[in-house]
């Protein structure tokens, strides 16, 4: 009897709840095409019946529906599973309900009409969190360290510091280079605090112009500027009773610094174009990759604001200063992306790990994560070898030199090692040229025919 074909693994399960059949069909098509298993429900009772048969990784619900609304569904799902990831869809007319949903623990909200790429991006982020929850270490590990990987002495001290400061309402300033995980630390503090049942709002100051940042933070009233067709609550108001994380705070203009200082001192602000003061109860956590004391000396940052922010400073060291954490981090990312890509890549070879620990990682943990993700995608076997590692060298140290540091005690296979070095350079050249073999051949100072032969011999894909 012929065996049944195995069902292709999905990227995750999604429950879509909307009384409009057309909306359910659109979301099913968009998300189904991305590899998600989508179930739809026309109302809250049908959604809860579907949910009772097996929890979904992510739930997307409209807020305004006949009978019980999306808020009711959110409450019920969160009562069953505090870690449930719920995305709400809202129109301008239900903005207050969206704010309430965020306070009740909704993962994110999407405004109608939405762009297809927006919904895909939000669901993608939620799925990353869902996978993280599934691969967490055992429950006996304290909640505040579960998502912060690192066994080095400096990371253990950060774990202890998080535990001590989380219960306070003191303002915290997190220092660290880009890619070190400043937002992870901020979220750990939030998750361990008494405000963990309220909203966590994150804003990157570098992503907005001065006027847009003020509108996002403080909100605006109708007619405040061209395009302000209705009142809009600021994210500070959305974060009421919760935690507000302001990333890259050094990017804030001097004018906005003055307004934000008042929020820190008085917990009050005035929306753009309004004359009415709003008050909020918010715990502030800020972060920067700059030396703020130097910025103060150079006149780029207000001294009084600096002292208000720097109540409890936390410094996250770059990855090059805690290399003993690299194997643990690499293994963590390997498990995540092997599962995500449905590939049986289970280990990192000894030589590949030597390469990883020898590199200085100027992009820090984010660069390591991206490297492991690429390596899993490129791996042809269950083990990641040096040939699978594509690291964009920015330190001036040739990849080949790193790969040959330390001669193995039992010797090595020279032909195999040379092949790995060759493959590494060819893959990097193809990445830089978007897979164009002709241009890659010029970068490698070889002929098109010779490079085509090597690509075929080494089994390199994505060449064109």
- Radius of gyration, in Å, reads 25 Å
Span of the ends, CA to CA: 42 Å
**CATH homologous superfamily designation of the largest domain:** P-loop containing nucleotide triphosphate hydrolases
CATH topology type of the largest domain: Rossmann fold
Number of helical elements: 19
* Beta strand count: 16
Enumerate the strands of the largest sheet in spatial order, edge to edge or round the barrel. 2-1-3-4-5
Architecture per CATH nomenclature, i.e. the level-2 architecture of the largest domain: 3-Layer(aba) Sandwich
Averaged pLDDT, please? 81
The overall number of domains is 3
pLDDT under 50 segments (min length 5)?
1-8, 136-144, 392-405
Task: Please explain how this structure is put together.
Strand 3 (58-62), helix 3 and strand 4 form a beta-alpha-beta unit. Helices cover 44% and strands 13% of the residues. It has 3 domains: 13-134, Rossmann fold; 143-317, Rossmann fold; 323-458, Helicase, Ruva Protein, domain 3 (Orthogonal Bundle). The chain contains 19 helices and 16 strands. The chain has 464 residues and is an alpha/beta fold. The strands form 5 sheets. Strands 2-1-3-4-5 form a 5-stranded parallel beta sheet, with helices on both faces. The chain has helices at 21-33, 44-52, 70-80, 95-103, 116-134, 153-165, 182-191, 210-218, 235-238, 254-266, 292-297, 303-309, 326-340, 350-358, 364-378, 399-403, 414-432, 437-443, 448-458; strands at residues 13-17, 37-41, 58-62, 86-90, 108-111, 172-175, 200-204, 219-220, 232-233, 243-247, 268-269, 278-279, 283-288, 312-315, 347-348, 383-384.
